[in-house]
Design goal:
- Keywords: Hydrolase, Membrane, Metal-binding, Metalloprotease, Protease, Transmembrane, Transmembrane helix, Zinc.
- The chain is an alpha+beta fold.
- It has two domains: 105 residues, Roll (PH-domain like), CATH 2.30.29; 257 residues, no CATH class.
- The strands form two sheets. A seven-stranded antiparallel β-sheet has the order 4-3-2-1-7-6-5, with helices on one face. The chain has a three-stranded mixed β-sheet with strand order 8-10-9.
- A hairpin with a 2-residue loop joins strand 5 and strand 6.
- Helix 7 packs across helix 9, helix 7 packs across helix 10 and helix 9 runs parallel beside helix 12.
- The radius of gyration is 33 Å and the shape is elongated.
- About 6% of the residues have low confidence.
């Protein structure tokens, strides 16, 4: 504790921008400022904030949100600043139990405090995101339908459907086989004329298959496997869960970074990057869950589970082949790369055919009954399904 020491100082009264030059006498728990015109005696515990400066310290009397606060600047050495801060903290700790706890934390070693903060944030974050999972349970399924309906309207204006009697028959029979008997969703499948080997589902149960996937499929099993995967996304409410988690993540990061970022664009960028990374992780987790659930659907109906695995394996091989072609003959095949490699890469970005995913699928398939190969439609009808939108594909490649 500093006793009867005098320091050069200056006092800002919170009204005038011109400070009063004077001296400060520190005597235990009190500070006495003296200048040519004034004499202030203030208890150390009255100061709400203590900040170190390059040439001493600064004590602020009132919280920022009240009004412009009177401020006392003291010019002293680093060691004297540490002693002053220690004296100020001891005075603040004596005010209440809450103050004692808060200012005890402030006295902690920065490294220890950082590790403790990281631990607390991790624990709170874990339960926070677990809580977000529960939030979806309180959102009615009608919200999923409304969300899907709004997207469907946009889809139908932007893409050309090329459904046929063969595709309608195939997917109608496939849905009867795969959709769980207790499902609360109404599923429909439509084919979009596009060479991209992709498929996706909306939260209202509407599933879209791009004709490229049907054209490239090696068997009915592959298409059935992909269909089961998309049904799983809807049944597990991945769209709504992802929406809730994305919103919750953005809110959490904004609260940590703080509101009113002003011109600190790097903090805004950090918030966006953090949100994007976490949302992508959620998407990958949901893809894994959809894989597992689709295998369960197929096994429960005694359907073969090999099709889904073989399809993703082929997509992975096609991506590798296109990447090699891009390196060796990029100038000659620029147009083909744009239409094929990029499309497959886009597909894999939402349906990641990683080695870990393949291993998971293989282990799931090996467990329990394998299932039998069942033809949903006859060979002739399947050929019609596979030739869907071929005219569109040819015209698109010209």
């Amino acid at each position: 504790m500093i006793q009867n020491q005098t320091f050069t100082s200056r006092y800002f009264n919170g009204v005038s921008a011109v400070p009063e030059e004077g001296t400060v006498l520190v005597n235990g728990q009190t500070i006495q400022f003296t200048s040519a015109d004034t004499n202030h005696k203030i208890s150390l515990s009255q100061f709400t904030e203590f900040h170190r400066t390059h040439n001493g310290c600064k004590l602020i009397l009132l919280p920022d949100e009240i009004k412009e606060s009177p401020t006392l600047e003291i010019f002293c050495t680093k060691e004297e600043t540490k002693l002053l801060e220690k004296t100020w903290i001891q005075n603040k700790k004596s005010q209440s139990h809450a103050s004692a706890f808060f200012y005890s934390i402030r006295e902690m070693n920065p490294i220890v405090l950082g590790l403790l903060s990281l631990f607390v944030v991790s624990v709170v974050g874990f339960f926070y995101f677990k809580g977000l999972e529960l939030v979806t349970n309180f959102i009615p399924l009608s919200m999923d339908k409304s969300l899907g309906d709004s997207v469907q309207l946009k889809m139908e204006t932007q893409f050309e459907a090329c459904d046929s009697k063969a595709t309608d028959r195939f997917f109608s029979e496939a849905l009867k086989q795969i959709v769980p008997s207790d499902s609360k969703h109404q599923f429909q499948v439509s084919v979009i004329g596009s060479p991209i080997p992709n498929a996706f589902a909306l939260s209202n149960g509407k599933i879209y298959f791009f004709s490229g996937l049907l054209n490239e499929a090696k068997s009915q099993e592959e298409v059935i496997g992909v269909l089961a995967h998309e049904i799983a996304h809807v049944e597990k409410r991945h769209h709504m869960r992802n929406l809730v988690k994305a919103g919750g993540t953005s809110l959490a990061i904004s609260l940590v970074v703080g509101p009113g970022l002003g011109n600190m664009e790097f903090l805004e960028t950090l918030t966006e990057i953090g949100s994007t990374i976490l949302v992508l992780k959620f998407s990958r987790d949901f893809e894994t869950e959809a894989d597992k659930t689709s295998i369960e659907y197929l096994k429960s109906k005694n359907l073969s589970t090999d099709g889904l695995l073989s399809f993703f394996q082929r997509m992975e091989e096609m991506e590798k082949g296109e990447n090699e072609s891009e390196e060796t003959d990029s100038a000659t095949n620029a147009k083909e790369e744009t239409s094929t490699a990029t499309q497959i890469t886009d597909f894999l970005s939402t349906h990641p055919a990683t080695k870990e995913r393949m291993k998971t699928l293989e282990s799931l398939i090996q467990k329990g009954k394998k299932g039998t190969i069942k033809k949903i439609v006859s060979d002739s009808t399947w050929k019609e399904v596979q030739s869907t939108c071929l005219d569109f594909k040819k015209s698109d490649s010209k």
